[in-house]
Automatic annotation (TrEMBL):
The lineage of its organism: Bacteria, Pseudomonadati, Pseudomonadota, Alphaproteobacteria, Acetobacterales. It comes from the Bacteria. Keywords: Hydrolase. Coiled coil: none annotated. It comes from Acetobacter malorum DSM 14337. This is dGTP triphosphohydrolase. Residues 56-277 form the HD/PDEase domain. InterPro entries: dGTP_triP_hydro_central_sf (IPR023293), dGTP_triphosphohydrolase_C (IPR027432), dGTPase (IPR006261), HD/PDEase_dom (IPR003607), HD_domain (IPR006674).
Amino acid sequence: MEWENLLKLDRLNDANYPEKKHRPPYVQDADRILFSTPFRRLANKTQVHPLYENDHLHHRLIHSFEVACVGRSLGYEIGTWLADECKYIPNTKIEIIPGLVQAACMAHDIGNPPFGHSGEEAIASWFREKFSTPQGIFQDISNTQRPEFESFEGNAQGFRLLTRTEMYKNNGGMRLTLGSLGAFTKYPVSAFIKQKIDAGKNGDQPCYIGLKKYGVFENDIGTFQRVATELGLLETPVEDSNEQKIGSWWRRHPLAFLMEAADDICYNIMDLEDAYLAGNISFEEATTLLQGLITPPNKAYPDTTPVEIISRYRALAITGGIKACVQAFKDNYASIMNGTYQSALVDSSNKAEEFEKIKNIAAEKIFNAARKTELEVYGRNVVYKTLDGILPLLDELRDKNWNIDNISSYHSQLVRALNFPLSSINNSYDALHCLTDFVSGMTDRYAVKVANMISR
C-alpha cells in the first residue's frame, strides 16, 4: 500500500468538492461527525456502566472525544516519523495523518446501540430467535443477508451511518473523505464473507485481525469497494466450492491500527478509573495496574486525595500507552503496509503484558460487577420489548405491499409517536435495516421510554 493513495482527501460521492483554504477536508470530516445527530446521542449511551447516576463515569460521547485526542497524538507521532525520518511522505502531508485518525476516532462508536456491547448482543440474539423459525418478513431474507442481523455489529452500523443514512441519504451519507473512511473501517469484510472464511478455516490457522468481526453490511459493500479501490487497500477474493468468486475482503488501512490503538488505550485505562469511582476495584488495585504503564515523572505533584492520585496516574498511563503503540507501529511497519500484520498495536507493544493484566481485572471485576450485570439484563429486555413492539408494523407494511397509506390506524399512530422512518422501505431487507437503524440509534433512556410505551 502506498501513502500517496492512502491519504486521499477526495469526498465519497463528491470528488469535486472545493477545499476551503483554512479548513482542511479532515477537519471538515470531524465537524460533520461532531454536529451529527448520531454523535450527539452518544452522550446518553453506555460506555461500561448502564444508566449510572454518577456523572463522573464515562459515556460514549466523552469516550469518543478522548479517543480522538489520543488518536490525534498517535497520528502526529507517526506522521512526523514518516516524513522526517523515513521520507515516505512530504512534510506538507504530516497534518493529514493526525487529521484522518482523529476523524475516524470521533466516529469509531457512532454505530453502537444503547446499553453498550450487551445491547449489541441483545439485538443479535433477538434476530437469531426470529430466524430459527422464520415467519413474516423474516422469510424474505436471503442466506447472504441473514448473518449481518444474527451477529449485529456496531462497526458495520457505523459505516452505514457515515456513508448512507445521514446528510445525503443513500448518496454518500456524510460524504467524508476516503482517507477518513479507510481509517474508520477496522473490519473490511461483510458478515456473509466472514462466515464463509470462518467455515473454511483450519482450527489452528491464525485469523487476520481485520477478520475478527465484520464491518460492512451487504448493501454497503459496493460503497466500501469504491473506497478501498481508490485508497489502494489490498483485496483478497473469496471463492465457493466451484472456484467461483462470491466476494472479497480487504486488508486494513494502516491508520485503522492507530484508531484501534487509541480506543484500546482509552477504554483500558479509563475503565480502571471508572471502576475505582464506581467502587468495583480498590485504590491499590487501580494504582498498581496503572503504574505498569507509567514512566515516573521528574517532578512532584500536589496530590491530596486518592481520586487526584488516580487521575494523575491515568494521565501518565495514557502517555505511556501512546509511546508504546507508536513504537509498535514503527517496529511492525513493513507488515502493516503489506497487509500481513496480525495483531493490535497494544498487543504487540512493549506494554502488552501490562495491558493484558488490566483486561484480566476488567473481565473479573468490572464487567461482572453485580449492578452492571443487573442493568445489562434489564437493557436486554428493553431492547427485546422495543423490537417486539415494532415488528408487527413492518409485517403489516409487507402485507400491504409497502404502501404506508394502507396500514392500520394504530400503526399509523406508532409511526407518528416514534417518528419511525418508513418512506424509503420497499422490501424486507431494507425494512429490517430500518428497524436496526432505529433501535441502535436510541439512547439508553429513550430505549426505556419506548419499551414502556409500546410493550404489551
